[in-house]
Amino acid sequence: MSSVTAHNSPATDARADSAPAGPPAGRPSILDRVPGFAHPTDRFVFGWAIALLVANIGIVATGGAVRLTKSGLGCPTWPRCTAESVVPHAELGIHGVIEFGNRMLTWVLTVIAIATVVAIWRRRPVERFNRRLSVLLGLGIPFQGVIGGITVLTDLNPWVVALHFLLSMALVSGAAWLVYRLRYPRGSSDTPGSAGLVARLGRDLSWLIYVTTWAATYLGTVVTGSGPHAGDENAPRNGLDPANATQLHADAVFILLGATVALVIGARAAKLGQYRTSVMFLGLLLLQGLIGAIQYATDLPIALVIAHMTGSALLVAGATWLVISFSRSNDDSAAENVSEQAAR
């Protein structure tokens, strides 16, 4: 999960600032008059992808604030706030304002997603996979909104709430994937290709880390659904024992920690290019674990729970970056070997 600004080179910056050929000549569209969209540069498209990733992580935090302030039913129905009104009225109080405000943020995210899709589709040369991925992410946002509406209509059923959160994590992962692909186009990666057994083990460990990150995230939603922050006082719980659910979540985190430490040690010993990325992920994981331990020991204060939820989104983004980095590096190495054999 290395910083996306970390591996800049003059060649990359020059490519980003170049004015590439835009869409095919023809009748001018309104987008031809919009700054940046007429002939999108690499830097312009990359900026929108970053905005999409940040917005998807941000809405995880605001959605958590809705639940933690017991505002999940601040607007008692969906898609309208009440049966009579689209917007909250005074009788709903601050909870109605908080819930309605979070719903409005979905529109902000939608605008960013549309801008990202348009920028990628107008970029030349065409990268079909990036086009499809951006459209998929864009379509995921209204779908996620519908799931959010179902959580309201089911009175914050904990399993539906968990699905809502996990879909947000999927959008975060997809956005991180898009950012990586734009930062390192086809034929390049953030690290040089690495061959050999150690590199392959590193790739396998990165996949274990990615899968375990998702397992820990899911079990975190199970913990939430069993505890005091599943919703307001009247919201249903999942009926599981909070202590047992917390222990399962902690077990998954310990497996994740062990795999990450092994990856860091192996990357350091083999001098793999992903060593720095692995260390950064380990640091993020340790910070997330510390926040989780403190929130558990201090009876789940709202601020720490929101920080922990945001940390979960950052971990998913980091695990995505890590696994793509290792997979891309191995693919590049394999391609180089094939080229060398063909040259002989």
UniProtKB/TrEMBL annotation:
The keyword Iron applies. It is found in: Membrane. It is a multi-pass membrane protein. This is Putative cytochrome oxidase assembly protein. Pathway: Porphyrin-containing compound metabolism. GO terms for molecular function: metal ion binding; oxidoreductase activity. Coiled coil: none annotated. GO terms for cellular component: membrane. Keywords: Cell membrane, Disulfide bond, Heme biosynthesis, Iron, Membrane, Metal-binding, Oxidoreductase, Transmembrane, Transmembrane helix. The lineage of its organism: Bacteria, Bacillati, Actinomycetota, Actinomycetes, Mycobacteriales. Its main location: membrane. Signal peptide: none annotated. Residues 1-25 are annotated as: Disordered.
